[in-house]
Design brief:
By secondary structure, the chain is mainly alpha-helical. Helix content is 64%, strand content 8%. It has a domain at 2-83. The relative contact order is 0.06. Keywords: Membrane, Transmembrane, Transmembrane helix.
Length: 118
Amino acid sequence: MKAQWFLMFILIFALITAVFAVINVEPVQVNFLFTQADIPLILVIIGSTFLGGLIALFIGFMRQFKLQRTIKQLEKRLAESGNGQAPEEWKDSSLSPGDREIVLPKESLNPNSEDFKS
């Protein structure tokens, strides 16, 4: 359901951007470092939107990569503990109980499962 709302938001944003861009077709002067150019405003709007989307996508991928790496490190440390319980040094009393819990499928907590044999 979350993905559907996200897709609807993206489509609405794309539609609003397209309408706004089509309304603004006059050429504008864009100043670069050592030169300037007259570019239609529609290209500036669409280009800026596209560039902003690429930057957001890159930041999202970097965040996801970092989270996946952290999960793998934590799963490795959990497997090394041998009993499927988090070591005492992981427990932080400053966190609320809901923040301290890491919910994993029961199969991944079993060190004798197939996932840990590879």
